[in-house]
């Protein structure tokens, strides 16, 4: 990211006081009492020319920010040198940085308010996003922009630039994967948000997503835009959001005066999780159902048949006299069946088990929709080998204990592939006892029966430590470095023809 051209001189690297956004602001004089832009210095011929130069989506978002910050028509701003539609790597055209004095009486600290422009459709001409929808409430681009509130450090008069880089990184993730962010989501980061600028003692190493408390949903000529605020959180707060509800954790953070107040201002100097979360221990009771139903992860899978050394041990051979008795008994049974008449005598066990199950699954829940509507591309596998990165595998205990043993499902979604573990009896699933591994293109469903789930629960319990390198101690005196487990790790269940391997992230590049 670098400074764009404009009339103002940069105040620091990559920051300008005048650029495309300031051009929009200067083309829109001060608003009237009822917030309708006036144009006393423009004649009628100038207005259409300005409308042609300034993208309509950008104008609408700028107006929304101007209503919140009427005294800052020309904010500090970060721009990209090479725009995304020209081959650049940064999807955000601009990131504005507004000064907000906060509300000390409500424990809301003075802070910088960062606002992105580019996740939504600024232009409406197809250069970045598909043409906007025509139905009421259709989203503009991805339907949201990103914001962040960062507390102002004493004596610092310019906004740090690392939040702008963070927002760009999140936008690249959205554009690369197509995964949209929503309020209540969590984002695992596993490193200092500021790159270590606040020192190694910073505990904010993950992110939560909230609705921006002051910027409401905006209607632009290209669709609606919601402002989603990125909030720094601790490892303990992240785990609570994974096990319970991101909204509940955000509420607890907003109610703690030391955590940024009701506007969810991120304080990089914060050393501990929010007070009520610490008092509750930061985790749900063991075995409690989890609301988290899926995450993004690096993964791949393949069909797998155990090698002879991995197969369950065969029983000892029977004595010849016993084998002969068994053969005679089976022969008598087969002879008696040949005397039966009617179709019942030729019933297929497989079709009997399949027919009643297929009729019992008429309703496909939203998670199972899409690729699973037809059976043309469905493949039934005899066994599977699943590979996850450490971050994805760290949620296996939650998936098994909080979802599968509770009779539900859990999904990992990667780039071009997906994996869903399913408990027996989940409506809409394509797996059952006779066919526990079903693939539709790159989406794999895996049935986890109760006996397997109980065994997996014991064996994967330690996997929650795979993402604990930045876990929060209860006090500074207890602070200890947690060595991550050695990878790769492989677990096999030969009886079920299931293998799971945890690999380092580099193995998925």
Automatic annotation (TrEMBL):
SUPFAM superfamilies the record matches = Suppressor of Fused, N-terminal domain
- Give the domain of life: Eukaryota
Q: Which Pfam families match?
A: SUFU (PF05076), SUFU_C (PF12470)
Q: Which residues form the Suppressor of fused-like domain?
A: 88-271
Keyword Cytoplasm among record annotations: yes
User: Where is this chain compositionally biased, Acidic residues type?
Assistant: 469-481
Task: Give the UniProt entry's GO cellular component terms.
Answer: cytoplasm; nucleus
Q: What is this protein called?
A: Suppressor of fused homolog
Q: What taxonomic ancestry is recorded?
A: Eukaryota, Metazoa, Ecdysozoa, Arthropoda, Hexapoda
Q: Where is this region: Disordered?
A: 466-486
Gene3D superfamilies linked to this entry = Sufu, C-terminal domain
* This protein's record includes keyword Nucleus: yes
Q: Where in the cell is it found?
A: Cytoplasm; Nucleus
Record the organism.
Spodoptera litura (Asian cotton leafworm)
In the record, the note on similarity to other proteins reads: Belongs to the SUFU family.
* Keywords for this protein: Cytoplasm, Nucleus
Suppressor of fused C-terminal domain ranges (all copies): 291-502
């Amino acid at each position: 990211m670098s400074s764009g051209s404009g009339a103002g001189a940069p105040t620091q690297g990559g920051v300008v006081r005048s650029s495309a956004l300031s051009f929009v602001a200067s083309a829109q004089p001060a608003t009237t009492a009822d917030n309708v832009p006036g144009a006393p210095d423009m004649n009628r011929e100038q207005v259409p020319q300005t409308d042609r130069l300034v993208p309509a989506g950008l104008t609408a978002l700028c107006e929304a920010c101007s209503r919140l910050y009427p005294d800052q028509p020309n904010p500090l701003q970060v721009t990209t040198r090479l725009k995304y539609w020209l081959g650049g790597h940064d999807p955000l055209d601009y990131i504005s940085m507004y000064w907000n004095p906060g509300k000390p009486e409500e424990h809301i600290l003075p802070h910088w308010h960062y606002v992105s422009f580019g996740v939504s459709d600024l232009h409406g001409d197809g250069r970045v996003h598909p043409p906007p929808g025509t139905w009421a409430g259709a989203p503009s681009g991805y339907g949201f922009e990103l914001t962040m509130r960062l507390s102002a450090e004493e004596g610092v008069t310019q906004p740090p630039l690392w939040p702008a880089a963070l927002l760009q990184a999140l936008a690249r993730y959205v554009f690369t994967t197509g995964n949209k962010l929503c309020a209540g989501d969590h984002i695992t980061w596993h490193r200092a948000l500021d790159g270590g600028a606040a020192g190694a003692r910073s505990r904010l190493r993950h992110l939560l997503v909230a609705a921006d408390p002051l910027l409401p949903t905006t209607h632009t000529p290209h669709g609606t835009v919601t402002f989603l605020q990125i909030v720094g959180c601790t490892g303990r707060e992240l785990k609570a959001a994974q096990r319970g509800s991101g909204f509940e954790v955000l509420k607890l953070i907003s109610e703690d005066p030391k955590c940024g107040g009701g506007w969810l201002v991120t304080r990089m100097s914060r050393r501990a999780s929010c007070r009520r979360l610490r008092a509750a221990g930061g985790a749900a009771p063991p075995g409690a159902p989890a609301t988290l139903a899926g995450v993004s992860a690096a993964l791949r899978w393949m069909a797998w048949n155990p090698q002879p050394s991995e197969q369950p041990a065969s029983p000892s051979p029977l004595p010849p006299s016993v084998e002969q008795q068994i053969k005679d008994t089976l022969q008598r049974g087969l002879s008696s069946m040949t005397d039966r008449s009617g179709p019942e005598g030729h019933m297929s066990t497989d079709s009997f088990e399949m027919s009643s199950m297929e009729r019992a699954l008429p309703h496909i829940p939203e998670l199972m929709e899409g690729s699973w509507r037809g059976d043309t591309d469905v493949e039934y596998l005899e066994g599977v080998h699943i590979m996850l990165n450490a971050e994805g595998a760290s949620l296996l205990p939650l998936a098994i204990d909080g979802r599968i043993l509770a009779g539900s499902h859990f999904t990992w979604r990667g780039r071009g592939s997906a994996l869903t573990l399913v408990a027996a009896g989940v409506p809409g699933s394509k797996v059952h006892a006779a066919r526990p591994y079903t693939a539709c293109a790159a989406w794999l469903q895996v049935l986890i029966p109760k006996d397997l789930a109980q065994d997996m629960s014991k064996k994967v319990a330690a996997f929650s430590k795979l993402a604990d390198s930045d876990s929060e101690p209860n006090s500074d005196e207890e602070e200890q470095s947690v060595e991550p487990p050695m990878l790769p790790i492989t677990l096999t269940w030969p009886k079920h023809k299931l293998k799971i391997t945890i690999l380092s992230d580099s193995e998925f590049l």
